[in-house]
């Protein structure tokens, strides 16, 4: 091969190499561009609303200036909140049911809370017909925002609100199989329509009137926590509780610590189901002293203690504390829900929902769909599975024990021919005065409709059987018999 031929061959190789380099660079930039397009699409679908809905986003102020805030509706179509516009253009937010829906709806002045915050993006956007929006913009007039249809049921919310009466506390009502929240009550309450006029009084109130106790109130769970202690015991004993027995004389003592059953009742010889149904503190303190602490901690985390909850409204995390270094007395107190454990009523509702739904927790849902102000569908929000909090076998076992509470234990007042109730009562001490206690009920009912989970917390009332159970019964009656 001549030198000239070698030179030509070398040039051809150089050109091929150069083409490959150009091709590689082109492919690299094409890949980057494709990834950017994919990211922008993902962001638009999953993240853009949360960014736009951020209170620091100036775009919100522009939308609020251009759109009349839309209405909030109950699942049956009843109007829960709307904007009244006077002749001079002044806008006023109106809540037809007053304080009945206060905490769950929230307010839209001096910040936003509740569903007013959750659905803010939808409420200040308008999907009115294009021509109408176009003409309004030409005239300098505001468009009407979209309406939010919630999962809230007016009758159940009203019954729960009225049943709680003048007591402080919280009530949550939700469907186990869908996650639909049908009612959420927190007291003390307020009229959302008067927030602007009474802001100074409300925001400085000593009783925390603006706090949604259903999702943000942290309480000792009392005997409702025995459901979790029971599950841990069953797990450590291969789901077999048949060998357990305890002779209760009304109290159990370890060192300088004595734990008494309610009113010092001596329950006598009990098996595991009887101990749970009668809510025997002594028996469950005895169980707590024998449990594996590390395993107990893992169960608590699996049941969402000290972690984020799948709840779209503002909430506080529940906490479970049981270090290996804790004394036997503290382990016993923890097992009956009187240690350092703190829970929200919402969290207890999630756990009970999973039990009722064979171990599967559905994500709590407050919004069904968005419509424009004429009722035309804009967007629907599907139910979704959060995950398994326990196995179906474990859920089935707990269902049996919860049923025993109503059949012959502390919840017999909930017996009915129209529906079947499963539940656990609780009386939670919260101060050095042992005569002061919160009343709890957490449970669900099955009948000819969806299984309905009900959690009741009555602050400082007394026993769960006396004060929380009657409230739950009124809700079950309203749902299954009317």
Largest sheet entry: 6 strands, mixed
N→C terminal distance: 102 Å
Structural class: alpha+beta
Strands side by side in the biggest sheet? 4-3-2-6-14-15
Estimated share of beta-strand residues: 15-25%
Average pLDDT works out at 91
* Number of helices in the DSSP assignment: 18
Please bin the fraction of helical residues. 25-40%
**pLDDT below 50 for ≥5 consecutive residues: which ranges?**
none
Record field, number of beta strands: 19
Radius of gyration: 29 Å
Shape by Cα distribution:
globular
The gist of it:
With 482 residues, the protein is an alpha+beta fold. It has helices spanning 3-46, 48-52, 58-66, 102-105, 114-118, 120-123, 130-139, 154-164, 199-203, 213-216, 226-236, 272-277, 281-290, 293-302, 328-335, 345-356, 392-408, 464-480; strands at residues 67-68, 72-73, 79-85, 91-94, 143-144, 147-150, 169-175, 181-187, 245-248, 251-254, 257-260, 268-271, 360-362, 367-371, 377-380, 385-388, 420-429, 437-446, 452-458. The strands form 6 sheets. The protein has a 6-stranded mixed β-sheet, with no helix packed on it. A 5-stranded antiparallel β-sheet has the order 8-7-19-18-17, with helices on both faces.
Could you explain the architecture of this structure?
The structure is a single chain. The chain is of the alpha+beta class and 482 residues long. It is 40% helix and 20% strand. The chain has 18 helices and 19 strands. It has helices at residues 3-46, 48-52, 58-66, 102-105, 114-118, 120-123, 130-139, 154-164, 199-203, 213-216, 226-236, 272-277, 281-290, 293-302, 328-335, 345-356, 392-408, 464-480, and strands at residues 67-68, 72-73, 79-85, 91-94, 143-144, 147-150, 169-175, 181-187, 245-248, 251-254, 257-260, 268-271, 360-362, 367-371, 377-380, 385-388, 420-429, 437-446, 452-458. The strands form six sheets. It has a six-stranded mixed β-sheet, with no helix packed on it. Strands 8-7-19-18-17 form a five-stranded antiparallel β-sheet, sandwiched between helices. It has a two-stranded parallel ribbon with strand order 1-5. A hairpin with a 5-residue loop joins strand 7 (169-175) and strand 8 (181-187). Helix 8 runs antiparallel to helix 18. The model has no long low-confidence stretch (mean pLDDT 91).
């Amino acid at each position: 091969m001549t030198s000239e031929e070698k030179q030509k061959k070398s040039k051809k190789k150089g050109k091929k190499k150069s083409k490959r380099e150009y091709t590689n660079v082109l492919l690299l930039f094409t890949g980057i561009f494709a990834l950017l397009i994919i990211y922008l699409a993902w962001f638009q679908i999953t993240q853009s609303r949360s960014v736009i809905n951020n209170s620091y986003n100036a775009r919100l102020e522009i939308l609020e200036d251009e759109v009349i805030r839309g209405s909030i509706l109950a699942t049956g179509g009843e109007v829960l909140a709307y904007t009244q516009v006077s002749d001079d253009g002044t806008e006023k937010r109106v809540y037809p049911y007053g304080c009945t829906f206060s905490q769950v709806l929230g307010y839209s002045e001096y910040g936003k809370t509740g569903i007013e915050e959750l659905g803010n993006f939808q409420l200040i956007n308008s999907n009115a017909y294009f021509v109408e929006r176009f003409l309004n913009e030409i005239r300098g007039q505001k468009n009407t925002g979209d309406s939010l249809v919630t999962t809230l049921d007016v009758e159940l919310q009203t019954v729960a609100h009225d049943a709680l009466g003048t007591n402080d506390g919280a009530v949550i009502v939700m469907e186990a199989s869908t996650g639909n929240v049908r009612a959420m009550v927190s007291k003390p309450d307020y009229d959302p329509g008067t927030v602007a006029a009474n802001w100074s009084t409300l925001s400085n109130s000593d009783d925390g009137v603006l706090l949604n106790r259903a999702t943000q109130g942290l309480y000792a769970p009392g005997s409702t926590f025995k459901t979790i202690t029971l599950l841990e015991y069953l797990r450590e004993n291969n789901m077999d509780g048949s060998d357990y027995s305890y002779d209760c004389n009304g109290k159990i003592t370890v060192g300088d610590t004595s734990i008494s059953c309610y009113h010092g009742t001596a329950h006598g010889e009990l098996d595991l189901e009887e101990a749970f149904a009668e809510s025997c503190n002594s028996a469950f303190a005895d169980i707590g002293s024998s449990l594996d602490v590390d395993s107990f901690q893992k169960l608590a985390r699996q049941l969402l203690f000290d972690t984020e909850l799948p709840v779209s409204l503002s909430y506080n995390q529940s906490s479970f504390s049981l270090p290996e270094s804790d004394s036997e007395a503290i382990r016993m107190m923890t097992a009956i829900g009187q240690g350092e454990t703190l829970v929200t009523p919402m969290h207890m509702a999630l756990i009970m929902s999973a039990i009722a739904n064979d171990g599967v927790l559905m994500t709590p849902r407050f919004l069904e769909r968005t419509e424009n102000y004429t009722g035309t569908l804009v967007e629907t929000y599907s139910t979704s599975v959060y995950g398994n909090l326990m196995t179906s076998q474990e859920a089935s076992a707990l269902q049996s024990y919860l049923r025993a509470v109503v059949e012959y234990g502390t919840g017999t007042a909930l017996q009915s021919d129209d529906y079947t109730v499963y539940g656990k009562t609780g009386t939670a001490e919260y101060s050095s005065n042992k005569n002061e206690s919160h009343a709890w009920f957490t449970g669900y009912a099955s009948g000819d409709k969806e299984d309905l989970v009900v959690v009741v917390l009555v602050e400082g009332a007394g026993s769960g059987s006396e004060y929380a159970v009657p409230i739950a019964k009124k809700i079950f009656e309203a749902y299954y018999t009317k």
